[in-house]
Amino acid sequence: MRAYIKPVYLDRDGVINLNRADYVRSLEQWTPIPGAIEAIVRLSNAGHPVIVLTNQSAIARNYCSVSDVEGIHQHLLHLACKAGGLISGIYYCPHHPDDGCECRKPRTGLIESARSELNLPDGGYIVGDADSDMELGRRTGLKTVLVLTGRGKEQLRIIDSDDCIQPWKVTENIKSAVDIILEDTVNNDR
């Protein structure tokens, strides 16, 4: 019998959709990265619980409302479902970076909430475009995959120059990240 397939945590902006320096503030500004929805479907159909984790300080900065962010998330859930996949949950931090909350990545609150509410096991993978995603993965025992979309290229230069702990894998985009995860899952299932 197959072992339980580990969850995959995905950052949103820069991984699933195009990032904006002035924040993604509305559904009209939200544009999926080509192949991202299909990549989510592949993970879901392979049995991985897919969870989106995202810092959304634009809410605290009054650039957008909670309903704007939740509207984007409902649209993302709909796109994944329409394409034949499932996103198990979307968790976001609405706070300002100076608020000191426990849910802003790289703090572990979003993953702790997802694990508790969705009854997820420890372990799994995190795909992100920032060192904060990689640090969250390190703090919670996940295999870290840095994608070079969004802020990824700039963040990799910072990681390299600051002599930080390297991600488990670095790859071009969410599509190639999913290839890596699915191959790793198969290899660890043998």
Strand elements, count: 6
Which percent range fits the helix content?
25-40%
Biggest pleated-sheet summary: 6 strands, parallel
**What's the CATH architecture name?**
3-Layer(aba) Sandwich
Provide the fold topology:
Elements: E1 8-11, H1 36-45, E2 50-55, H2 66-82, E3 89-93, H3 109-118, E4 125-128, H4 131-140, E5 143-147, H5 152-161, E6 169-171, H6 174-189
Parallel strand pairs: 1-2, 1-4, 2-3, 4-5, 5-6
Q: How would you sum up this structure, described in words?
A:
The chain has a single domain, classed as Rossmann fold. 38% of the residues lie in helices and 14% in strands. It contains 6 helices and 6 strands. The radius of gyration is 16 Å and the shape is globular.
Summarize the structure.
With 190 residues, this protein is an alpha/beta fold. Helix content is 38%, strand content 14%.
Identify the notable features of this structure and list them briefly.
190 residues, alpha/beta, Rossmann fold, 6-stranded parallel β-sheet, 6 helices
